[in-house]
Structures are given as C-alpha cells and as structure tokens.
Amino acid sequence: MGLQSSLAYIVFGWLPSILIGRGLTPTQAGLVLSGSVIIQLASSLAAPWLATRGKDQRLAIVVVMALTLGGLFGCLYAPIEGLWGWAILLGLGQGGTFSLALTLIVLRSRDSHVAANLSSMSQGFGYTLASMGPFAVGVVHDWTGGWNAVGWIFGIIGTGAIIAGLGAGRALYVQVQSEKI
C-alpha cells in the first residue's frame, strides 16, 4: 500500500516539474499529468476484476507495477515525442496498483475483523511511509541539480513494491490475533 502510494505522491507532486525540466511548458506538463490521471479510471476498475479471476494475484501485481515503472522511466528518460504514450502506461499502471492494493486487503482476510485490522495497519503504516517518497525526490533533485538521478528512487520504490506484492499476492489469508475489548 505504502510503496505504490509513494510513487503516486511523487507523480502528483513532481511529474510536472520533471516534464518542465525536460522542456515542456507548465501547461503542457499539467496536461500530461491530467491525462495520465484520467487514464487511471480504466485500470482502477479493471485490475481488481481481472485479479479476482484467480486466487493468486502475483502476476497482476507484476503487470501493473511494470506498467507503472515503464511509464515513469519513459516520462523521465525516453524521447519527448513519445511522452503521451508513456503517460498512458503510467496511468494504466498507477490506477491498477492502487485498486489492487485495496482489493488485496479484502482478498487476504477471512472476515471483517481481519480486514479491519489489516486495513488499518497497511494504510496507517503505508501512507506514513508513502510521504517519504516526494521528500526523497526533492532531496535528490537538490543534491544533483537535475532529474536523472530520481530514476534510482523510482527503481528502489518500484522494486520494493514488486517484492512486497509478490508476498501479498500469494493465495493465503492473513492470520490476526487480537483481544476484543
């Protein structure tokens, strides 16, 4: 939950600045981000539906993360002429990762009590962790004076998300022990 949210916060907060650094006007950069976000609607609806066709969601997680990372790296490094294509890939990936992360909470829970515990843990810890991503991008940009090194942050967070997703995507239930008050 936190790693995919971190990438989303980075995109929402920094992608226009990255694109301006690559030569786009502020208006063009805003349009690219808006287009990417609009595309998220399709995959946010499709990814959970597709992922629930089976008991194991690991392939779905790898696919949406590959789309996300491909789109991010394309927006950062690929020739600017293909930017809209990379933004579409990014949107498809990010919409899918967010909805899939929320779907996994339900799929890995035997009952509503477990779902509530898993949700509070993953979202509470996850969103706290996610807030560090945009900060790290700003620090790396300030240290290096450019955007190219930010790709390392994308790669580290994305790799972490894939590793966590491979664990969370297994066809297992979370076991929760808690005392009722």
UniProtKB/TrEMBL annotation:
It comes from the Bacteria. Keywords: Membrane, Transmembrane, Transmembrane helix. The chain crosses the membrane at residues 7-25, 31-52, 59-80, 86-107, 114-137, 149-173. Pfam families: MFS_1 (PF07690). The keyword Transmembrane helix applies. Coiled coil: none annotated. InterPro entries: MFS, MFS_Cyanate_Porter, MFS_trans_sf. The keyword Transmembrane helix applies. PANTHER family: 2-NITROIMIDAZOLE TRANSPORTER, PTHR23523. This is Putative transporter YycB. It comes from Pseudomonas fluorescens. The lineage of its organism: Bacteria, Pseudomonadati, Pseudomonadota, Gammaproteobacteria, Pseudomonadales.
